[in-house]
Amino acid sequence: MNYKKIANEVIENVGGKENIASAVHCVTRLRLVLKDTTKYDREVIENIEGVKGVFFNGGQLQIIFGTKTVDLVHAALMEILDIKESSLADVKSEANKNQSKIKQMFKAFSDIFVGLIPAIVGCAMILGLRSLFLTEGLFGLEGTLADTYKWANDTASFLNIIATGLNFLPVFIAYSATKRFGGNPALGIIIGLILVHPDLGNRFEYLQGTATNVEYWNLLGITVPAVAFQGGIFPAILTSLFLATFEKFITKHVPQVLSFVLVPTLTIIVSSLALFIVFGPLGDVIASALGYVCELLYVKIGVIGAFAFAALLQPLVITGTHHAIGGIEAQLIAQTGFNYIQPLWAVSIIAQGGACIGMFLLAAKKSKLREVSVSSFIPTLVGVSEPAIFAVNLKDSIVPFLCAAIGAGFGGVYMKLLDVKALGFGLTGIPGVTIVNPPVMIHYLIGNLIAFVLPIVFLVIYHKIKGVQGIDNSKAKAA
Q: Which of 101, 290, 387, 436 could form a disulfide with 376 if both were Cys (CB 3.0 to 4.6 A apart)?
């Protein structure tokens, strides 16, 4: 494979060197930010040697080459372009300039949680391991391991302590959000610690009306309850945005000789007042509204809501509005200790992989569609659906994508009926097994199997009745 030739062909068909603002690659995709997004020829690029799919998303032209190949193509591209190496963050930042304010908002929301996912996943896995010691009936015991053996009880206690990160989630979020919005992350940590300060009352009890001896402050003539914001995901984000904005403002207006003292002091005082008076209560309202919608879909409407929830998650991925879901998942974990959205994410993603395999089975032998279908299916096993969606399931027809969405819906119904929940978020597919509540782990696997198989069945039936567009044109041999 001539990587320099491939790179030249890519450059030629995206409008030339002068139309490429920046370039970077991830594990499987070459990501280009174009100055004029009307100048690329998708059809020609799709037929370049080694290309497995092309789609435009998040302000970036993303060309799927697959692992290792993308590294070599990118290296050849950068040599030809003779431009400085860009980071993935640089490319995303450049791409964001062309996005609407709403998409930028959702993207910022996503950025806050991306860096926290390893810590959240780690703590969730530890809690999952802890639950093995505390679940009755496991290992053939009548009670639990912790009830039977002192070492098991001590281990469970130890694991509970080291998984404490989930108890202080608002601190991490305030740090990450302040950093994302351009403020001093150390000041964000202070706001986060205020959110969970032990001397403040319990907010859950306060909101439910069960709190006793609640102290009230008179701040600027406003009566404010002295209660914490345990699980305060949205108060943390909103206050961090205010903190970063106010810090920039005050830095410009305070004499430089006094800024070292006055900027952090005023920022902490004003941001804390804003937290208790404005953004704390506003965050509670937002959390309650989102919680109501989720409860309506998943709890009150039941299996119908679970079907709709799981079926609609991947359409959200196409629009880029799926980034907000992470905040809802974090809120669920903070309030209940469980996350019922993660299993729905899992079935929605693996269903897209199932549709890829369905297209593989229908495609002609040695066709490029077969090659692309398999390579796009593999990422769905670890929770990445974009290659499957854009390179296969929406490439020539919407039918594979819809079959996957319907299959995901039925997988969601199974997850609902068997009450499958996770202890964290950020992992789906095979890695997602590690954060699923252990007593229902087998049902997590069965639910994913249902979501994987059904799209294949639906596609085969549809093809026999009407024919799936793109199948008949896939007989050309793969490069």
A: 387
